[in-house]
Amino acid sequence: MSYLDPEFESSERRSARRGPLLVSLAALVPGALLGWLVYEAVGEGTSGDSPRAAAPAAASWRTSAALSSPVRSASAPPSASPGDDGKGAATARSGPLAGKVIVIDPGHNQGNFQHLTEINRQVDIGTNWKECDTTGTSTKAGYTEADFTLDVAHRLRTLLEQQGATVKLTRDGDAPLWGPCVTERAQIGNEAHADAALSIHADDSAEGDRGFHVILPGTVHAGAADTRPIVGPSHDLGVRVADSFLRETREPLSNYVGEGTGLVTRTDLGGLNLSTVPKVFIECGNMRDSKDSALLAKGAWRQKAAQGLFEGIADFLNR
Question: What's the half-sphere exposure (Cβ side, CA atoms, 13 Å) at 203?
Answer without folding.
Answer: 29
